[in-house]
Specification:
single chain, 280 residues, mainly alpha, Helix Hairpins, 2 domains, 8 helices, 2 strands, 64% helix, 1% strand, elongated
């Protein structure tokens, strides 16, 4: 049974003039990647979790601090807002009159503005890069899935019977592409399952096992059923449509139909990856 997740701690730095430095809390650089932040959080969480420290109040407070820091820094939009607030405090919140940040000297003010703009641009660029990586990860799942379903429809409509009558060289090419397509499809499905699915019997709010399944929207069973039922439904729809149309290859759906969907997925994914890189 999936356990409920406690409400996240949100942007408490806005409630206090004295801001907590979440990067120092997690012991990472302000330029740390999402993976580095996640790794640092897991490492500290295992060390500071109350279950590991006999309910110590001190470690419980430290654990709460790293949990709050991670809730903000894990999300690109929240992290960008926090970074802008932190940057504003660093450049405008100093009370030390001798500091270059608080100096009224024209050159110091100009230098401060240039540094501020540079840091601000770094924040925006990092947020865009994070969103682009997330978009690419999602597309790597969506495109193969759609290609698999579309290919099932067309195979059902066309019912190709080419393999048996093809020269040996063509058969070798088809089998080679099929094997490559199956390997590629399995890799894509595995990546999707690791990123977006969880096992029903997992403890979703567990920190000690390093699990991130609490944020994953689908169970492995649901995702597997979606793929299998979706493929069979598309194949059936294709056969139904093809039965009302003039025969292209054969009146029957032969065993060789299994060759074509993985090959189609492989080619679609290659073209998508190439287009994404050219666009980037």
């Amino acid at each position: 049974m999936r356990r409920s997740r406690p409400p996240p701690l949100r942007l408490s730095f806005c409630e206090s003039r004295e801001m907590a430095n979440y990067y120092e809390t997690l012991k990472v650089s302000p330029k740390a990647s999402s993976a580095e932040i996640k790794s640092a959080y897991r490492r500290l969480a295992r060390k500071l979790h109350p279950d590991k420290n006999n309910g110590s109040e001190e470690t419980a407070l430290a654990f709460a601090a790293i949990a709050e820091a991670y809730e903000i820094l894990r999300d690109p939009a929240d992290r960008a807002r926090y970074d802008k607030k932190l940057l504003h405090n660093q450049f405008n919140g100093s009370s030390n009159g001798d500091s270059v940040f608080a100096s009224s000297n024209t050159h110091a003010q100009r230098w401060r503005q240039l540094v501020y703009e540079h840091r601000y641009n770094e924040i925006i660029n990092r947020m865009i890069a994070e969103e682009r990586r997330e978009s690419m990860a999602l597309q790597k799942i969506i495109f193969p899935t759609v290609a698999l379903f579309v290919s099932a429809v067309f195979v059902g409509i066309l019912r190709p019977q080419l393999f048996a009558s093809s020269p040996i060289i063509v058969k070798i090419i088809v089998v080679t592409l099929f094997i490559a397509g199956v390997i590629h499809l399995i890799r894509r499905i595995r990546e999707a399952f690791e990123k977006y699915t969880y096992y029903p019997d997992e403890l979703h709010d567990s920190i000690l096992d390093g699990s991130e399944t609490v944020a994953k929207p689908f169970s492995r069973l649901t995702a597997s059923a979606f793929l299998i039922v979706g493929f069979l439904a598309c194949l059936g729809a294709g056969v139904l449509i093809g039965s009302s149309m003039p025969t292209v290859f054969s009146t029957n759906l032969g065993p060789e139909f299994v060759f074509y969907p993985p090959i189609f997925v492989l080619f679609v994914d290659i073209m998508h990856t190439f287009a994404f890189r050219v666009d980037g």
